[in-house]
Write a structure and sequence with these properties.
- This protein is an alpha+beta fold.
- It folds into two domains: 3-160, Fructose-1,6-Bisphosphatase, Chain A, domain 1 (2-Layer Sandwich); 167-265, D-Maltodextrin-Binding Protein, domain 2 (3-Layer(aba) Sandwich), CATH 3.40.190.80.
- 31% of the residues lie in helices and 27% in strands.
- The chain has helices spanning 3-29, 47-63, 72-78, 97-102, 181-187, 202-208, 223-235, and strands at 37-38, 44-45, 69-71, 87-95, 108-115, 118-126, 131-136, 140-145, 157-160, 170-175, 192-198, 214-217, 239-241, 262-265.
- The strands form four sheets. Strands 3-4-5-6-7-8-9 form a seven-stranded mixed beta sheet, sandwiched between helices.
- The longest helix has 27 residues, at 3-29.
- The protein binds adenosine-3'-5'-diphosphate (A3P) and magnesium ion (MG).
- Adenosine-3'-5'-diphosphate binds next to strand 4.
Length: 269
Amino acid sequence: MSDFARDRRLLDALAELSVEAGRAILDVYEGGSIEARAKDDRSPVTDADERAEAILIAGLDKLMPGVPVIAEEASSRDGVRSDAPPAFLLVDPLDGTREFLAKNGEFTVNIGYVENGEPVLGCVFAPALGALWIGSIALGAKAARAGLREIPSSDAYQPIAARHAADAALCAVASRSHSDPTTEEFLSTLNVASRRSAGSSLKFCLVAEGEADVYPRFGPTMEWDTAAGHAVLAAAGGAVLKPDGSPFGYGKAEDGFRNGPFVAWGARG
Ligand SMILES: Nc1ncnc2c1ncn2[C@@H]1O[C@H](COP(=O)(O)O)[C@@H](OP(=O)(O)O)[C@H]1O
Ligand SMILES: [Mg+2]
């Protein structure tokens, strides 16, 4: 199978699977008061995170048998593996748990596929917005808006592309729930004309759609928080780099799959 045919098949299947996980998340979201428990790192987890992750892991096992899956909740429970396979999936079933608890809709289901340290294919789905972004390096990126709980039809998709911004008129996007002084310091070195805040991996999608130009993140994140959004942005012509401009890679098993600082950029050059 060519890369194109493989990616087309995978992206369609990941879209469907993330909508299925999104339905389980919405059942909890719309079901009255949500009970949050604190994990070992003191971040919150709910039934929605756990139900969505179980759906994703079962679906990925059928779709890509034998490909290791590194997922947030299983990693919190059992620890992360000590080696990085040459190809693997990174899953965050509910990124932006704080946004989920605040009921502001800015949370996402994330599936990223990494080959040789690079996120080559990804799917980000925002269940409460009915918004889906998929992309691969070989095929490019596209986005769909559909009704809640619906799998978008093929004509619901539009191609997306990161934009070329004039240096003097950058729109920067930053976390709604986690800010840190180093990120602010970095932003003060750019000519930022406007600012937006968003929860979860939606920040990558805003840059991928050409609605923002830069998303700097110096505070802590894990590889499963960023792989899917990174893949969509790279497929849309943007890039995620370390602050010094060197490549930002995945499979950092020696760091427990923790990310260092990064800057997500729109189209440049
Ligand atoms: N102290 C910390 N350590 C590790 N990850 C953290 C963290 N604070 C925030 N994060 C990560 O940032 C993500 C939220 O990003 P944002 O602030 O952009 O919405 C969280 O995802 P989860 O909500 O999946 O736990 C979490 O993984
Ligand atoms: Mg997350």
